[in-house]
Write a structure and sequence with these properties.
Number of domains: 2
CATH topology of the largest domain: Arc Repressor Mutant, subunit A
Number of helices: 10
Length: 279
DNA sequence: AAGCGGCGCAACCGCGTCACA
DNA sequence: ATGTGACGCGGTTGCGCCGCT
């Protein structure tokens, strides 16, 4: 036991990162990579804990990050994956190149949940919600059924009978592809190769040699193919422009069309498009 | 124009897991 | 086999921004 707090209370900074800190961290990681996060702040001259550095890097500074709102296709994909995986954001993020688990989690909590509820889908179970109760006829003494506890782990993954498939999946080390994603064939973009510590390999120890600053060893054309000048907004630090415009949207939206990401939910739930409950 | 409330995002916290001694 | 340390993940919090009154 006695696990020590990762940030010894003494003298380590917390809270928002400054441009200078960002610069130090990025500069260090691009030059040296990271062997272990614990030493990164020390070597980079930061008064932060390694954990904080890792988070900052993976959620914000990584050159391959795609920023901005999730596209409809991405949103749809997130919903499908959530249906299968539950709140396993890192696994979901692994399927969305350039997106972070944190970002997806936030988007889920702030946008998608609401949208699903609005169309009568329980965002936890992905089941059709009970229609709004009719105006209470006072005598209805039966207490409302307890709200399904939210954030209670993954939904009983869809209609799968019994068993925690997540656990099972874990047993199989989940590298087993989740069952084929229905309806996704037309929307999944060609997986962008995953550079530098990107999700699936969030844990990966990508080594970045100085020589490979722009194409870290664990990277791929994704990064190497992207000029630094196309790094994401945080790279404002270095006077770099957004990477956002780099063709990802183009890639996925080849499926084209402005598809309502919830359309199939309307359908699954037996609604016509308009036939939604406004809750 | 100012105040207030809600929303969204970045960051933190704590636990689980894994690797290694 | 066991204990320890590091990392990663998911949940939660805090704060700034923006829109509404």
């Amino acid at each position: 036991m006695g696990r020590q707090p990762c940030c010894d209370k003494v003298g380590l900074k917390k809270g928002p990162w400054t441009a200078e800190e960002d610069q130090k961290l990025v500069g260090f990681l691009l030059t040296h990579g990271h062997c272990c996060w614990r030493v990164v702040p020390k070597l980079a001259g930061l008064l932060r804990c390694g954990k904080s550095c890792r988070l900052r890097w993976t959620n914000y500074l990584r050159p391959d990050l795609k920023r901005g709102l999730l596209s409809d296709d991405e949103e749809r994909l997130v919903i499908e994956l959530h249906k299968q995986l539950g709140n396993r954001w890192s696994k979901i993020a692994a399927r969305l190149p350039g997106r972070t688990d944190n970002e997806i989690k936030n988007h889920w909590n702030t946008h998608i949940k609401k949208k699903l509820r609005k169309i009568g889908i329980d965002p936890v179970t992905h089941q059709v919600l009970e229609p709004p109760r009719p105006p209470p006829c006072e005598q209805d003494a039966t207490p409302p059924p307890p709200e399904p506890p939210e954030q209670q782990g993954p939904p009983p993954p869809q209609e799968q009978q019994g068993g925690d498939i997540m656990r099972e999946a874990d047993g199989n080390e989940e590298e087993e592809e989740p069952s084929p994603l229905i309806e996704l064939h037309e929307m999944t973009a060609p997986p962008r190769p995953r550079p530098l510590g990107a999700a699936e390999g969030a844990t990966s120890t990508c080594s970045v040699s100085p020589a490979s600053v722009l194409s870290p060893s664990c990277s791929s054309s994704a990064v190497s193919g992207v000029d630094v000048t196309e790094w994401p907004e945080p790279m404002y630090l270095f006077g770099m422009d957004g990477i956002m415009d780099v063709g990802w949207d183009g890639l996925i939206s080849d499926a084209g069309v402005d598809v309502d990401p919830f359309a199939h939910y309307y359908h699954d739930a037996g609604f016509d498009d308009q036939d939604v409950w406004i809750i």
